[in-house]
Protein: Flp pilus assembly protein, secretin CpaC
Amino acid sequence: MRASRFLISALAAAAMFVSAGVAQARDIRVALDQAFPIRLSEAAEGVAIGNPTIAGVSVQNDHFLFVTGRSYGSTNLVVVGANGRVLYSGRVVVTPDETDVVMVTRGIETARLECTPLCRPRPDIGDGERSAAAQDQITGRGGVR
Structure:
């Protein structure tokens, strides 16, 4: 009985030691269509994003990368270094960018206007048919270089 308690304690301590080597990361909160910079203390050899339709990762060099919000939701980001050592592991949460946005509600219809300084329609993910043309233009703009 004593030996099994000792073994369990030793395994728990070993698990804490192993997990202590991983950078404990806070959630990365990034607004839709915005970028968030991450500077790494060690060189990265691999980067993985759980769901690339929610967030994208752009690697600038082995110590610097950007996370960009693509769609609302959350996913995870893992960065590994030499010998597969995890340098960063955390959640990426993509939120709406509500700075300078005015929402106008008429019955069940909601329209968003971005007012910087003039108010213009600002279609968003999930908006109804009224914003379909603007969404098509936004999508098309992404393909133009």
